[in-house]
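ok trying again, last paste got cut off:
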Amino acid sequence: MSTSNWLVPLDDELCARLRTCMGCGARCHGHAWYDVWGGATIAVAFLLCERCHADAAAHATVERLMRKRYGPPGG
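nice, full thing came through this time. structure:
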């Protein structure tokens, strides 16, 4: 994957565009965990609230959702 694919997810974080948890859909107030999932040709930013970040099942759910939407990771 080219580094230019990461520009939008990084811009999303720097401009604080993401406000809801990808795991549970709750509004993230205060501390949230920002991450980028890298697919074969796309990079997608997402947030996890503290509760979902601590839950391994939430991470697995995000991974399944991303694979369903964007295909297998890699690049």
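cool. The chain has one domain: 3-70. Residues 3-70 form one domain.
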